[in-house]
Amino acid sequence: MSETAGLRFAMRTEKRLDRRQGQILAEVIRQFVASGSPAGSKAVAEKLQQSWSSATIRHVMCELEGLGFLTQPHTSAGRMPTDKAYRYYVDWLAETSRLAPETERFIDETLQPEPDAQERLMARTSSVLAQVSQNVGIVLGPTLEEELLEHIKFVRLPEQRVLAVIVSKPDLVENKVISLQDEFTQEELDRAADFLNGEFRGWSLRAIRLEIFHRLEQMKMLCDRLVSTVAVLFQWGALGREELGPLFVDGTEALVGQPEFSDSRVFKELLKTFEEKVTLVKILSACLQSPATGVMTMIGQENPAREMQHCTIVVAPFRYRRRVMGALGVVGPTRMEYDRAIAMVDYVAQRCSRLLSAS
């Protein structure tokens, strides 16, 4: 399965339930999220305080079960929401909510500007997401290729090696040592750096590479050695390759004791996914390719990775000015307080974007 196959964005594909069905489904979800126990018709009736009898509510719950929104673990139990129910809730029923003022204040006070220390901000953000959500906080930082060039310097090293010092926005300094098959003088390297700094300041490193090779044929006649030097440095990775961004994960201990992960095999697979990080990086990278601009959710079996299909991922992009730089969010059981999780991820993403854009 491709990495994007399980992604779901803000597309409302289900036929909308009637008002009574929607209210009852929402209440079953709220009760199950709060308690972890199946919701019975009597408890739903008491909470809704409508004129509907327990028998009427039980009948509607049977209808919802037939439509695939609810399931019953055994005949004498109440009912539990399915992944389909959570998706419907997020698409149609979730209320636009705001975090409590003290929560917003905690986020604002904890996430402060980190001059020249973008990775510290990313790590702190994953910790804040974990603390506030009581789930796992994840942040995918920008790849070097997405950084915007401020300044570059090349330093000649022994044995046909070159040190590339790349200063980029927002607030990142990257040192890369590359090995070449060609020998360049320091003067040639200085000319290549001056050319890049003069022509491409403010461009992404990916865009610079594409533009250089696009211009190469036209420029050869004018400055063959200069452009050839730049092209060779690109070819050997001086300005980044198609690498995935760094992933910061915090709060995996929050999953301990969650009934969804009581099966030790499932829990171990999930922990391995967090430790190895590759699957999460690919899922979050796929989110960044989406045309959606706000918070996205992947619920249960919508997740492309089998080991993540007991989980929900709530994720949003963060930006440097208007340019998407990475993604952040939370991972937890599908039995999640969606209204709050969506509001929290959105708030933290906006906070990070403001901090990065102010630098």
Structure summary:
By secondary structure, the chain is of the alpha+beta class.
Q: In words, what does this structure look like?
A:
This protein starts with 18 loop residues before the first helix and ends with a helix. Helix 2 crosses helix 3. The strands form three sheets. Strands 7-3-10-9-8 form a five-stranded antiparallel beta sheet, with helices on both faces. It has a three-stranded antiparallel beta sheet with strand order 4-5-6. It has 359 residues and is of the alpha+beta class. The protein contains eleven helices and ten strands. The protein is elongated, with a radius of gyration of 25 Å. The chain has three domains: 19-93, Arc Repressor Mutant, subunit A, CATH 1.10.10.10; 101-143 and 245-357, Beta-Lactamase, CATH 3.30.450.40; 145-235, 2-Layer Sandwich (Enolase-like, domain 1), CATH 3.30.390.
The number of helical runs is 11
Structural category: alpha+beta
**Outline:** elongated
Give the class-level CATH name of the largest domain.
Alpha Beta
In total, how many domains does the architecture comprise? Answer: 3
In spatial order, strands of the major sheet run 7-3-10-9-8
Biggest sheet descriptor = 5 strands, antiparallel
Helix content: 40-55%
How widely separated are the two ends?
Answer: 40 Å
CATH superfamily of the largest domain: GAF domain
What fraction strand?
15-25%
**Radius of gyration in whole Å, from Cα?**
25 Å
- Report the average pLDDT across residues: 85
The fold-level CATH name of the largest domain is: Beta-Lactamase
